[in-house]
Structure prediction request, 370 residues.
Amino acid sequence: MSIDRSNLDRLMDRAARVAARGHGLVEPGCMVGAVVATADGTVLAEDRYRRYGGPHAERTALEKAGDAARGGTLLVTLEPCDHHGKTPPCTEAVIASGVSTVVHACHDPNELAAGGTEALRRAGITVIHHPTPLTELLNAPHVHRTRTGLPWMIAKWAQTLDGRIATGSGHSKWISSTRSRRLVHRERGRVDAILTGVGTVLADDPLLTPRDLRRARRRPERVVVDDQLDTPLDAGLVTTAGDIPTTILCRMEASTSARAGEFLAAGVRVVGIDEASGLRGTLRAEAAGRRWSTMMVEGGGGLLGRLFRDGLVNRALVFSAPVLVGDESAPGPVRGLAPDSIESSIQLERLWSIERDPDRIELFRVAGGE
Prediction:
């Protein structure tokens, strides 16, 4: 194969960008992109996994390339599968295409789908494992879900320049700009569930629905962590539960109370948090039963502190506005951690930062959150 490393990086990152267009459409599957190229790096075709249960990216990209793929290189962000699932094995299509080389960015962590590399090599195809930083970011949710059974969790908050999410009196509308809030609604429409805490319900009475979009890719469920079932029965999340699935996670003893029966009558699911496995175990079980693959957290400092403490947050999406509150009593985005030192604090790595006037929007990777 004569494609040099710089071209491999360029083409693999191209496949990753193509794959990312499937966010919100392919989960609980993995976002996958594929590029078919000649030996000198000329692109013949590209495609992505477009919908859950549909044809895989490498199969459709090779179909687009046709006979021109023979002797060429297939670059794909995830190892081609070698099993009969919702579609036939991709290895069959790759072998039939006549490509001489396959470059993939990630070994499939799903044991049922794995084995593609060995099958292709048995057919005489050169297989190269070539991850890039961009493909690692792309594949992180799929790898996390497969290995842990937990949903990929993104914590979102808006804060002032001095790190406050509201004034001392609790007023928070609106810290971020209209443009920033539009981005949040877009992201809401791409996840399976939105998680909040009872404190946010009592303070803001949110609906947590994607709005002002031409078309939301997903209709997320709403999930409230409310240990004692203090959510008002006339809260917006409860009165709309007949239209939008809503779940309250509470202490086990509260889940069998008369109060729980009132929520059930209103159409709200009530689930007791398993005492042995805690919130982590309950979220894992609910993710399996409800098919929650991606979850956005829109809560206050208490819930975020609990989630960070339990190692459940994978990414933090932070909107910082050029506003100063200057009030020591005003709440911050996370509380309840109390580390002994900076070294023992939650460590974040900035993945990207953009200016969307007047706000700064940053995405962080949480250390240990993958």
Q: What stands out?
A: The mean pLDDT is 93. The first strand starts at residue 33 and ends at 37.
